[in-house]
Amino acid sequence: MRIAIDAHGGDKAPAAAVEGTLRAAKELPDAELILVGKPEEVEPMIRAAGKPSNVTLAAAEEVIEADDEPAKAVRRKKQSSMVIAGRMVREGQADALVSAGNTGALMATGLLVVGRIEGIERPALAPILPTMDGVGMLALDLGANMDSTPEHLVQYAIMGSLYRSRVHGMEKPRVGLLNVGTEPMKGNELTKAAFEQLERAPVNFIGNVESRDVLFRNCDVLVCDGFAGNIMLKSMEGTATAVFKALKEQFTSSLWTKLAAAVLAPGIRRFRSKMDYATYGGAPMLGVNGVCVKAHGSSDAQAFANGIKQAYQEVRHQLVQTIASEFSRK
Predict the structure, then answer these.
(1) Is residue 271's pLDDT more than 80?
(2) Residue-level pLDDT at 274
(3) What share of the chain is helix, strand, coil (3-state, %, to 5)?
(4) Which one, of 66, 74, 90, lies nearest residue 9 by Cα?
(5) How confident is the model at residue 276 (pLDDT cuts 50, 70, 90)?
(6) What is the pTM for the complete model shown?
(7) What confidence score (pLDDT) does residue 262 get?
(8) pLDDT classification of 126: cutoffs 50, 70, 90
(9) Pathway listed for it (predicted)?
(10) In which domain, by residue range, is 78 found?
(11) Residue 128 falls inside a structural domain
(12) Which end of the chain is more exposed for a tag (fewer CB within 10 A), N or C?
């Protein structure tokens, strides 16, 4: 198995990508991990680590920056680390791609370079949202497509169900539709039409789900359009940041609160770890004709390692082939 890693994607690149790759290499000895990046920056880091036998370098000359216009960057920067990694997947030189780079550019790479699975209208980003029980909830789409149709949401539901059952071993994953209320006729025209179609779809549809219940995992696959989903995601991230900042301020405000913090610290660390995006690796891009994992832009080395291991599992469980087979029957 060969996994291509965009060494220059993310806020902490290339150091985090290289260190994460080296960590994953130790845990995945049967995988060839290919760092795609500028040799003058990446090679010294690999050499300093003793150049593991299952880590190789593929040279790139350019980098797609965070503020680049996605589709234009993919078309013009053909020698960028992200585009080369995508081309390797398309041409069979790699089985998967992992990047923490520009989200829009990675979506464009998936569409324009790797290509869609036949029958899929819109690929979707499907991250695992942290939940209180530590299992997590697969949510799609959380930002790839701002304008979706009911048919797109049904495709998301089917792909999400296949992911949960194939990669996570869930027998009958519960599918919920993000809405403003749980009643069947709640919502806008999109959710009302999607509700009717999801009731007839080959998934275990349990109805509408409100965002306030997401952290308690009242479903296993949460379906939504990218606009509403991204707002929900950013709200959750902002709330988590604010809560932990407020806790830190309170626990450092006096001698007594510092003593209390010392007692509570192990439990708080466990809770923070449970709610940390790095635990889950990245968001699979479902619907493209190859495994593509979008790691968080601020991923550290451990998040990169988890993203690589996630890609490994998706390839091992033949996720792309399973989705392609399902939609070829339609």
Answers:
(1) no
(2) 64
(3) 50, 15, 35
(4) 66
(5) low
(6) 0.88
(7) 84
(8) very high
(9) Lipid metabolism; phospholipid metabolism
(10) 1-120+287-317
(11) no
(12) C
Write the burial class of residue 274 (CB in 10 Å: 0-12 exposed, 13-18 middle, 19+ buried): middle
H or E element that contains 47: helix 39-48
Task: Give domain status of residue 111, yes or no.
Answer: yes
* Helices and strands per DSSP (H, E), number in the chain: 11, 12
Per-position b or e across 7-42, b if 16+ CB within 10 A of its CB: bbbbebbbebbbbbbbbbbeebeebbbbbbbbeebb
In a domain, 197, yes or no: no
**Residue bearing the bigger pLDDT, 51 or 89:** 89
Classify residue 127 by burial, with Cβ atoms within 10 Å: 0-12, 13-18, 19+.
buried
Two tokens, residue 218: 């009242």
* 61 pLDDT tier (thresholds 50, 70, 90): very high
The CATH number given to whatever domain includes residue 21 is 3.40.718.10
**Residue 132 parent element (H or E):** none
| Alpha carbon distance 187, 180 (integer Å) | 6
Number of domains making up the chain: 1
Q: Examine residue 185 and state whether it is found in any structural domain, yes or no.
A: no
